[in-house]
Amino acid sequence: MLLRQFTRAPNNMNLIRRIATNAILKNQTVTTNIDYNQLVLVDVNDKNGYATVTLNRPPVNSFNLELMMALSRALDQVERNNSRGMILTSIIPNIFSTGFDIRELYQADERRLREFWSVLQDCWFKLYGSTYPTAASINGHNPAAGCFFALCCEYRAMVRNSKLGISGARLGISIPLPMIYTMRSVISTRQTELALTTGTLFTSDDALKVGLIDDIATDRSDAFAKCEAFLDRFKDIPPVSRGYTKRSVRQKDMEEIAANRQRDTDEFVRAVLNPEAQSSFAAFLGK
Ligand SMILES: CCCCCCCCCCC/C=C/C(=O)SCCNC(=O)CCNC(=O)[C@H](O)C(C)(C)COP(=O)(O)OP(=O)(O)OC[C@H]1O[C@@H](n2cnc3c(N)ncnc32)[C@H](O)[C@@H]1OP(=O)(O)O
């Protein structure tokens, strides 16, 4: 493969210490002894300059705080390296992600939950607001929060026989505003409302029909190739003006979300800790 691993941070322990120190300063949960570089892999193709960001938390890439932090760091890396484009994907053969790790939500510690949401917000700003071109190579099932990250990208190719959507309504989770804005940036307001209030998980055919994905792929390498072909469309487009235009299109959503970070955090915490949601999590975990 032409892919090469980005140079690792020279001293990973320093980085972990810095995160921990910041967390202490902000009176947040401290997570130590985590190898963030392994939870999300960042590779760059020497030939075309595209970065591949690969979620690597088997068995199902469910998002806990550590995976979220690793994604946030990976997006910083892509930005720092001036990549020509980015493909978001997963290492697991038939699963992109199963969304939030339910164990992170069930009987959650409020402080950790707030930090989880805050890092998720950071990821949204970094991905939705990125100036480089982005594509999601959806190599398998992608319900809930993973679908959210795919929708932040400019293009999605999904393998056949997978399901995609935001299933939060089924678990009694009310859907936060940033999710609504993000889906509405891809499909119509009417379809967004229908999809989110029913918690619909779309088959690849239905997702294509409604516009949630751009292409159906035969397998993961086809999905990846389709993402590369999408990024190639910008090969001859000057990147600075392209990035500026993308940011302008997304600016209003970003300003509104930025202005309401605290309110969104409070709503998320309330939504997760509400008894209806907690009993769905308990049922999911067989408690
Ligand atoms: C600016 C701010 C931005 C705001 C952004 C807002 C984002 C909004 C998101 C909206 C709200 C979203 C909430 C969530 O994400 S809640 C999580 C919802 N996820 C699900 O309901 C998915 C559940 N999983 C499945 O349906 C199946 O796992 C799947 C079809 C995907 C795959 O099936 P498969 O048969 O291949 O695998 P298993 O089901 O056997 O799973 C293997 C083991 O993994 C465990 N598992 C699966 N999913 C989760 C999970 N989400 N959390 C924890 N654990 C999970 C599963 O129980 C199996 O475990 P065991 O082997 O021990 O049985």
Automatic annotation (TrEMBL):
It catalyses: (3Z)-octenoyl-CoA = (2E)-octenoyl-CoA; (3Z)-decenoyl-CoA = (2E)-decenoyl-CoA; (2E)-tetradecenoyl-CoA = (3Z)-tetradecenoyl-CoA; (3Z)-dodecenoyl-CoA = (2E)-dodecenoyl-CoA. GO terms for cellular component: mitochondrial matrix. Keywords: Acetylation, Fatty acid metabolism, Isomerase, Lipid metabolism, Mitochondrion, Transit peptide. GO terms for molecular function: delta(3)-delta(2)-enoyl-CoA isomerase activity. It is found in: Mitochondrion matrix. Pathway: Lipid metabolism; fatty acid beta-oxidation. One of its GO terms (biological process) is fatty acid beta-oxidation. CDD domains: crotonase-like. It comes from the Eukaryota. It holds the Pfam family ECH_1. InterPro entries: ClpP/crotonase-like_dom_sf, Enoyl-CoA_hydra/iso. Key enzyme of fatty acid beta-oxidation. Able to isomerize both 3-cis (3Z) and 3-trans (3E) double bonds into the 2-trans (2E) form in a range of enoyl-CoA species, with a preference for (3Z)-enoyl-CoAs over (3E)-enoyl-CoAs. The catalytic efficiency of this enzyme is not affected by the fatty acyl chain length. Homotrimer. This is Enoyl-CoA delta isomerase 1, mitochondrial.
